[in-house]
Predict the 3D structure of the following.
Amino acid sequence: MPQAPSSVVSIIDLTKLENSNASNSWVPLCNDVRHALEEHGYFIALYDKVSAELEKGIFDVMGELFDVPIETKKKNSSDFYFYRWVGQLELAPLHESMGIVHPADIEALQSFTTLMWPQGNYRFCETVTTYVKAAAELEQLVDRMVFESYGVPEKHYESHIAATTYLLRPTKYTAPPPATADSTDNVGANIHTDKSFSTLLFQNQVNGLQVETKNGEWIAVDVPPSAFVFMAGDAYEAWSNGRIYAPRHQVLLKGDKQRYTLALFTFNKGITDIPDELVDETHPLQYKPFDNFGLAWYYLSGANSMIHSTAKAYCGINAG
């Protein structure tokens, strides 16, 4: 598979940048973030709120989580596919993941923890709480930067944050057998776009993510230690009136190390409107107001192919 030069990847340093008063570089950085999402659909974020101790701790407890018996993992169930345990997939045999719904809510997190460890696991709860707090702060910071760069009023950002729900999906990718490292047996995740508004990805320094550019080339993303990948989902593409690119991506594995990732997905409750500020003569209205969860269910119903963006099919002006 041909790959584009790695220089396409945008690395943006958001360290110690929390609001518009923090630095005189705020406006240029906002524009950099918006441009990266428009051109590539993702960027690598440098952010200093996850210490080395927390990074080690979060992957330690992820190891504990995936070590619980499979009968216990299956208790992580839901009618909504993205909320439940996923494993033993024929088309992605190296993949295993779980869904922790509303991970920023201590009662919801404790409920999940008790499901996995009836005797309790204080360390797991404490570590995940600390991690999610830092990750959610980064996610909201990026959203604020995008909204401000587009000139969308503060009230719209506030209503967006109020509608945001979080889903944490810890994922384990087993190292592929050496004899099949260059075959289809190295698939960790098949080609797809995310159905969320956004995805914030954190990994254990084992690469595997590949992202498709607008011109159809694939980039193997080399993520620096302790950095995040912020990626736009189909809902972000629709909200932006098609300005932001929701990229297709996949996970292909090589080497002999297991890969662990934490994906913090955001889904918006209720109806999401396309801001008036993003509609003009150059950018005529392309999307109708939409329900983010409705978009996800539409995809899960089989109405949209795994490998194509769901936004236009679900809520495009010419859809249905």
Notes: The two ends are 34 Å apart (CA to CA).
